[in-house]
């Protein structure tokens, strides 16, 4: 199988190198092809999602992404919108047809103390957030800024709602069988469509799954005050952006959060943390999320669940034995990666 | 001065009665006129915001609202959108011209243990969220659901951005002088306008205020993992809906959260909690937030800050001496209200 890696900006190259080392160890038969994306790609090729990168995706079996974007005050943020690092990321998602972003939020046993929540609330949290990733207000072409007015359009169609809801129901069947669909149907027509179509799909195809509907403002509260109530959460792109980042703080470190974006073509696997330019190049970044993304790549991208489990187990062991600085330990990137490799043997 | 009260649905009438008792005590000169809103108004008058209510607002100096809406499975939620309780609320906001919703999020000293956050994170939190309340995707007329597609439009104009930002800067000047403006300018044109106009107003008129800009997904994380970093947060309607509810969980009980909506006409003051139909009519609802809303009404609606301070102090004392059930105590609505009245003497 062919894996395309896109290390990207900031700490992306370091954590991707760690992830690739692990990938080579558990799947020695893969071929790996590295390409440019983001701010670095703009510097080198004049665009954040260059043609060579796009072409390389065509026969890829999965894509492993590092991180994209510069510091808060980076000159990249002043470029015309289509040239900014984020646009490279959005184009990549679109090119891959990844309409469902899966984010597992799991508090590792023994690491409850890292959570900003009280330990009794954090303990045992195990949520899967499924975010629609190619529709809604992110991509709709009806958008404008002109003079002193600006607008964007949040649009969905039934097929767009159904395909991501289908993914959520399918995932729920492998888990506790409960889906919470999140919308703002008391205010928005687009949410009314969302709610109707999610319910219809459940009634037609997933009678064994328990479905309920909650408002986005209410979920923002409950995910903090009672996270244990959720199994699978499915929602549209913008709400998903906010809620998945919110939920990501529960385990206590973004350094522990992988993600998978799935759809029509090869899947996209990436840590959810940012490019952390302040610590880039120092060799101290926590590569756990990038390595856990390899776990998701093995499971969802290559259907190798034994290898995926081996990676997950090794990461859990390494986290206990050699925690990185963001977790209150002292391990640097290399030490942690070594510990994962050792634990796999 | 004339105060219009709109007790509304569920526990609204009970907590409003408590609030009115306190208002009469500290401001015996006010006249109070009660009117219908929400589901009850629909039952009685066929619409959630009846003409008589609208007329009564004309010469009001301030409006004290209870709570609006039925249970999750209430038949009210199946009515055509304009007849639902929420529409009454949205029409009320519009009629009053309340473009800025102010939500103080303060952890009361000694009550840190109620927070879902670790006490060391909750301690000393004191944030003011200023939410734009009359624009954006809530009210824009360009919206539709038809067949298998639906959309809503998030639109802002410079004057809409400026008036709410002005309120936020003004509030910051009375506080720690720091404003965080929240948007999604890396993706949305409407956020680009928002960011540009908030910054321009700061540079033109509020040089003494420190302004920074953050993305909504990042704020959703940071408000939980590091709430102490915020002073005033200003944002558009939908982001504000989500973030203000999220922040509201920090003090540990929605029963402690008042709000003020200010604009061109009389201000609107209300507790942020819902109508809690499950406990309505039992006399056990916590009226603290409704009474604290009287505090905000005195301060912002009638410019009587001495009276406002007296109410705030009395509520703080009553909370310690006679906590209600939602706070782990045993006081019912009447006992708590009595305690507030006693503490004011
Ligand atoms: C960088 C940005 C465009 C992106 C998004 O909003 O989708 C990021 O926040 C994410 O969640 O992956
Ligand atoms: C009931 C609903 C329309 C309302 C809103 O979204 O504005 C509520 O959530 C609020 O925040 O007051």
From TrEMBL, chains A, B:
One GO BP: L-leucine biosynthetic process
GO-annotated molecular function: 3-isopropylmalate dehydrogenase activity; magnesium ion binding; NAD binding
Reactions it catalyzes: (2R,3S)-3-isopropylmalate + NAD(+) = 4-methyl-2-oxopentanoate + CO2 + NADH
Pathway stated in the Swiss-Prot or TrEMBL entry: Amino-acid biosynthesis; L-leucine biosynthesis; L-leucine from 3-methyl-2-oxobutanoate: step 3/4
PROSITE patterns tied to this protein: IDH_IMDH
Domain of life: Bacteria
Residue span(s) of domain Isopropylmalate dehydrogenase-like: 2-340
EC class of the enzyme, as a word: oxidoreductase
Keywords: Amino-acid biosynthesis, Branched-chain amino acid biosynthesis, Leucine biosynthesis, Magnesium, Manganese, Metal-binding, NAD, Oxidoreductase
Cofactor note (record): Binds 1 Mg(2+) or Mn(2+) ion per subunit.
Signal peptide limits: none
GO cellular component: cytosol
Cofactor(s) the protein requires to work: Mg(2+); Mn(2+)
Family, similarity comment: Belongs to the isocitrate and isopropylmalate dehydrogenases family. LeuB type 1 subfamily.
Assembly information from the UniProt record: Homodimer.
Annotated protein name in UniProt: 3-isopropylmalate dehydrogenase
């Amino acid at each position: 199988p062919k894996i395309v890696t896109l290390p990207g900006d900031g700490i992306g190259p370091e954590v991707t190198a760690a992830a690739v080392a692990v990938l080579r160890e558990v799947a020695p038969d893969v071929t790996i092809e590295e390409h440019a994306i983001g701010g670095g790609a703009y510097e080198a090729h004049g665009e954040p999602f260059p043609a060579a990168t796009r072409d390389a995706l065509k026969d890829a079996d999965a894509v492993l992404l590092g991180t994209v974007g510069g510091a808060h005050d980076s000159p990249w943020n002043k470029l015309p919108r289509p040239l900014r690092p984020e646009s490279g990321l959005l184009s990549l998602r679109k090119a891959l047809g990844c309409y469902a972003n899966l984010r597992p939020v799991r508090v590792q046993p023994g690491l409850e103390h890292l959570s900003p929540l009280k330990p009794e609330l954090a303990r045992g949290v195990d949520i899967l957030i499924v975010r629609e990733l190619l529709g809604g207000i992110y991509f709709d072409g009806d958008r404008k800024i002109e003079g002193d007015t600006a607008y964007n359009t949040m649009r969905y169609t039934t097929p767009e709602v159904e395909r991501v809801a289908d993914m959520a129901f399918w995932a729920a069947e492998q888990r506790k069988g409960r889906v919470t669909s999140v919308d703002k149907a008391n205010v928005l027509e687009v949410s009314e469509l969302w709610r109707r179509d999610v319910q219809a799909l459940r009634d037609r195809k997933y009678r064994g799954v328990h479905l309920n509907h909650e408002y986005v403002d209410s979920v923002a509260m409950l995910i903090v005050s009672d996270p244990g109530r959720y199994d699978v959460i499915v929602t549209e792109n913008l709400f998903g952006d906010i809620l998945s980042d919110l939920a990501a703080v529960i385990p206590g470190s973004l350094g522990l959060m992988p993600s998978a974006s799935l759809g029509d073509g090869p899947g996209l696997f990436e840590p959810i943390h940012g490019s952390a330019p302040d610590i880039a190049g120092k060799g101290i970044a926590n590569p756990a999320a990038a390595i856990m993304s390899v776990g998701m790549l093995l499971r969802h991208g290559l259907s190798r669940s034994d290898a995926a489990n081996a990676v997950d187990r090794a990461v859990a062991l390494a986290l206990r034995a050699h925690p990185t600085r963001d977790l209150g330990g002292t391990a640097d990137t290399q030490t942690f990666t070594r510990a994962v490799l050792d634990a796999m043997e």
